[in-house]
Amino acid sequence: MTLRITVLGCGYLGTTHAAGMAELGFEVMGMDVDEDRVATLAAGRAPLYEPHLEPMLRTHVDSGRLRFTTSYEEVAQFGDVHFLCIGTPQKKGEYATDLRYQHGVVDGLSPHLDRPALVVGKSTVPVGTAAALRDRIQAAAPAARDVDLVWNPEFLREGFAVHDTLHPDRIVLGTDSEPAVETMREVYAKTLADGTPLIVTDYQTAELVKAAANAFLATKISFINAMSELCEAAGANVDELADALGHDERIGRKFLNAGIGFGGGCIPKDIRGLIARAGELGVDQAVSFLKEVDAINMRQRAHVVDLARAALGGSLLGTRVAVLGAAFKPDTDDIRDSPALNVAGQLHLQGAEVSVYDPRANDSARRIFPTLTYADSTLEACQGADLVLHLTMWQEFLDADPAEIGEVVNHRRVIDGRNALDADRWRAAGWTYRALGRP
Ligand code: UGA
Predict the structure, then answer these.
(1) Contact (Cβ atoms closer than 8 angstroms) between residue 222 and residue 432
(2) Which residues have any ligand 1 atom within 6 Å of their CB?
(3) Architecture of the domain spanning 210-294
(4) 277-300: pLDDT as tens digits
């Protein structure tokens, strides 16, 4: 009999995972406590922007292979394998991870688990969480020890979520149970047949792999941003430095793009969660460098504000600034801890009139920063601007015509916070072009 899959929590991860599991051929039921979100999903619409997600979702909702509910009882009755795709935000006022949503879902689901089932954790959690969740589930489930838990961290990137779900670069399973591994081999049969590496390990290692992966990526970005500070002081060029470093296969060019740094709903809170957990385990020194990684990252945001102020003659008061980009990276409408929006907010607080344009994230940005002005196009945002800031690397901005934008601004000054625009082209169109870590 084919396994039936449920996905609890329908955010970026859960929605993509649910649609991806249906794409792999399973009957899937997605569950979320948010009734509006469930109604949107049940109508075949994605509640967030992610390339290729909505068509895949609609196909499987239309075929009936993918359904959504708000009921724990229904998912418990329906599924053999229950994926936990619930958010693990940072606690307010602390570095530690807030596990209340994981606990809430487990406590909602477990009392209905009255036959053998496998619960699969996907979220990024502090090491030690899986063991505690398994005990919590088995204590509350009528089927008790016939319900098992596997930790299967997710490595998908927003903007590439569909691709990464269907073609992950590795599958990691934390478990000590052979039957659980067999069930997971069935779930990922197609992916494994494509040659995807499978690593079976214990709970702790599986949990740490995810935290370590994000900590490494953060370190790589902050490393190049630290070099960017050095380049600026020495009159060197950080992009050429990164290109030259990247040719060393041990280093690699990816994630060495200097700029206003990392943001999003994952990497920033994950490195802080790791710092907090290491402290609880008595090894805070081992990861104290991550505090510096975080500090370098935050400094880039402040640095670009300083550059903007300097470009405007020492004060932002009464100036007009156009900000291109609000999402934390291109191809998403996610503005969680977005460096772009953070910079836009700081400019506004220091007296600039800020006009923001993002191809997808205007609506989500407006909800948390209603005091900024939002434009419907690059040209509208740049109308009368004394300074233009490029802060999210959407293709649309890379393709934009600097001559055309030059016609509508007050001053042809641009700061490229992502070191990604074609500097020669902008300069040729009469712009004063400034990037980070470059002469
Ligand atoms: C990240 C990881 O890359 C995923 O593997 C992981 O699954 C995910 O977090 C998660 O924990 O759920 P994501 O948050 O989608 O994925 O974003 P990234 O592509 O990693 O980018 C993070 C930030 O770093 C963005 O703000 C991006 O603009 C910035 N960045 C990236 C740089 O500033 N420089 C670079 O060279 C690369």
Answers:
(1) no
(2) 124, 154-158, 214, 217, 221, 255-257, 259, 261-264, 266-267, 270, 328-329
(3) Orthogonal Bundle (1.10)
(4) 999 999 999 999 999 999 999 999
